[in-house]
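re: that chain from earlier
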Amino acid sequence: MSFSRVCAVSLLLLFGLSLAACCGGGSTKVVTQPANVTTTTNPTLGKQLEDLEAAYKKGAISKEEYETAKKNLIDQGAQTK
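^ sequence. v structure.
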């Protein structure tokens, strides 16, 4: 090989290595955060009634079960006031 060809290959190799050193090798750090979970120990009467109605509309409970549970919730709500 001629001297100029050796120099050209050397420069290309040097350029490639320096470019690889600048752009690669880094690691991506993934930061996890806790989920925003709201827990309520005592849902409001309105929320309980909404959940009950949703269960009825989905067919999870019968009309009689819905009416009985609704009455019980309303009675309990009146007693806690």
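Residues 3-23 form the longest helix (21 residues).
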